[in-house]
Amino acid sequence: MLVFYFNRPKGELEYLSFLHRLFGKGPLIPIPDDVLKALGKEITSLRGVNRLPVKIKECLYASLVPCDLLTTYGIDPQSLLNREGHAAFQFDFPPDKGLVKIQFKRSISEIDPIVFIQLSDTTYNQVEFEWVIINDPDSERFQIHISDSTQFLPPGSEFRNVPEEIRAMKAGLAPGQVRRGLRKFPEIMELLESLLTRLNIHLVYGFPYAYHNAIELERIGYFYGTGKELMVEIDQGFQPGGKFLQRLDGSTPFRQLGMEKTIRGRSWAVHDGIMDTPWICPMMIKITGRKLKDYTFPDAIYLNPRPDERQAKP
């Protein structure tokens, strides 16, 4: 859940100064007088944000993508156009709905976005942070779906392409990934939190769709609203003598002994249906400006480094 409070300072100069603080050192968008008058009320939902002028919405939502990604992939930070002059961002923010989808690509011809973010209002005038997908567009793509084109597959899904999942796992990917990531998830979450802090937002809610996503949220300071009991049960199950550890019997490539030691290994086992019950997304909460330690896999590592990646200790 995200709740936006968008307060406009009095006067045009103060408002432009506010935009400068909000969006950093980038160019300011000229604000006509009639637009300034339209921004006189507080905005407390995505539906309200979506009623803002298009350029303001684009600037607001594009600020959630790290600037260095724009530089890396040749995107003009002022116009948000790529080298061919096409829009690098695609936004879906209908003014009559509390929904926003942000898609960032370096080329319109590429299938997978570099960054995809989705937020939506709830029926109680709150906002859910639903999706964040980050892809390295130059990495190998794994066709982990049989017929579905989405990037996330719930555990036990009938659309799983198991041979491709095995290849993806061996390449170091986690469940649901079609490409290697860019290690930008914490930074994007920081940008989101920074934006919300400037807008006087104090809580961020997330609903991780996989085990490794929940652990990643733990590591950046989220705590559990619901679902912690399941996460503790998973950790206990992978401890010596635990029922999940006993099921790492080599019966599938996703149930190999040693996978209990890493976040990614556990996530593949959960994805493969090692639990007695289906995976249920927990509800996790972040207090902006604070980092809590609600850990269910203490001292976790993401994956075991390959032999050529290990560094000799001095």
Task: Give the SSE map.
Layout: H1 12-23, H2 33-38, H3 46-49, H4 54-62, H5 67-72, E1 89-92, E2 99-104, E3 115-121, E4 127-134, H6 162-170, H7 185-198, E5 203-206, H8 211-219, E6 223-226, H9 228-237, H10 243-246, H11 263-271, E7 283-287
Q: What would your notes on this structure say?
A:
This protein is of the alpha+beta class. Helix content is 29%, strand content 12%. It contains 11 helices and 7 strands. The protein has helices at residues 12-23, 33-38, 46-49, 54-62, 67-72, 162-170, 185-198, 211-219, 228-237, 243-246, 263-271; strands at residues 89-92, 99-104, 115-121, 127-134, 203-206, 223-226, 283-287. The strands form 2 sheets. Strands 1-2-3-4 form a 4-stranded antiparallel beta sheet, with helices on one face. A hairpin with a 5-residue loop joins strand 3 (115-121) and strand 4 (127-134). The longest helix has 14 residues, at 185-198. The radius of gyration is 21 Å and the shape is globular. The relative contact order is 0.11.
